[in-house]
């Protein structure tokens, strides 16, 4: 009985450590920013896809929830060093919420099949835009939200999804052996 409790404690600690590692990757990716208004371009969506695809749906979503909690507590983890509850109520809050959904969806990326992997990663990437654009529309209207929160990001979405797919494909053999 005691050994089972120790094993569960180790598993819980390992899960938490990996979730915090994922949140640190998110925080770093948020600081690589191309300033735009109202939504900055960052490497966050690439990090979301990789965290979800490599960690799986549960751990991927947990890492993003940890990231949001860190930002809510005042740690400067959001784009441009933003932090606090106000950042979770501003124009980009919908995208932040969409990161959790996207990481969860990316966690279902199949381990085989280039087209299937690419399709799941693209769907996961596009999923973050739904809550992002809907929330942003409350600040700037739907037409401007679609332009500033989605259309301008289409080229980057294609490139970052392709980078995530290439990274996933390149690491698959290594991860299987580990």
Question: What does this protein look like?
Answer:
- Belongs to the BioY family.
- It is a multi-pass membrane protein.
- GO terms for molecular function: biotin transmembrane transporter activity.
- It is found in: Cell membrane.
- It comes from Teichococcus aestuarii.
- The structure is a single chain.
- By secondary structure, the protein is mainly α.
- It has a single domain (2-171), classed as Arp2/3 complex 21 kDa subunit ARPC3, CATH 1.10.1760.
- 72% of the residues lie in helices and 2% in strands.
- It has eight helices and two strands.
- It has helices spanning 2-30, 44-55, 57-72, 93-106, 114-127, 129-140, 142-149, 154-177, and strands at 33-34, 41-42.
- A two-stranded antiparallel sheet has the order 1-2.
- A hairpin with a 6-residue loop joins β1 (33-34) and β2.
- The protein starts with a helix and ends with a helix.
- The model has no long low-confidence stretch (mean pLDDT 94).
Tally of structural domains: 1
Indicate the proportion of strand residues. Answer: under 5%
**Major sheet size, sense and barrel closure:** 2 strands, antiparallel
Number of helices: 8
- How far is the N terminus from the C terminus? 29 Å
Which residue ranges are poorly predicted, with pLDDT under 50 across at least 5 consecutive positions?
none
Please count the beta strands (DSSP E, at least 2 residues each). Answer: 2
Strand pairing plus helix content: what structural class? mainly alpha
- Please state the average pLDDT score: 94
> Which term fits the overall shape?
globular
H-E order: HEEHHHHHHH
Name of the level-1 CATH class: Mainly Alpha
Instruction: Provide the helix percentage.
Output: over 70%
Report the CATH architecture.
Orthogonal Bundle
Radius of gyration, in angstroms, nearest whole number:
17 Å
Membrane topology: Multi-pass membrane protein
Protein name: Biotin transporter
Transmembrane segments: 37-55, 62-82, 88-108, 120-140, 146-168
Family: Belongs to the BioY family.
